[in-house]
Design a protein that fits this description.
Shape: elongated
Order of helices and strands: HH
Number of strands: 0
Distance between the termini: 103 Å
Strand content: under 5%
Mean pLDDT: 89
Helix content: 55-70%
Length: about 80
């Protein structure tokens, strides 16, 4: 028996067998609802992430303006010259 004939026999046996189970009628609706929930959660997580990033940038900016880390700190003693 050649390969195409074996495939054809397998297909015929599958089609002659018992019918496949019927899917529940509300399956598509449940899948769509679940998809909407997943998208809503992703959107909420993305929004929270952007707000946290924004808050971190604002906090860093306020800290930098208050402490001015780019300036050198004042000396506690006078520099000694002539050594």
């Amino acid at each position: 028996m050649s390969r195409p004939e074996r495939r054809e026999d397998r297909v015929r046996r599958m089609l002659d067998g018992p019918p496949r189970p019927v899917l529940p009628p509300a399956l598509a609706d449940r899948a769509a609802d679940r998809g909407r929930r997943v998208l809503r959660r992703r959107r909420a997580a993305r929004t929270v992430g952007w707000w946290l990033l924004f808050a971190a940038v604002v906090a860093f900016t306020v800290w930098a303006v208050i402490t001015e880390p780019w300036t050198t700190p004042p000396l506690d003693s006078t520099p000694v010259e002539g050594w």
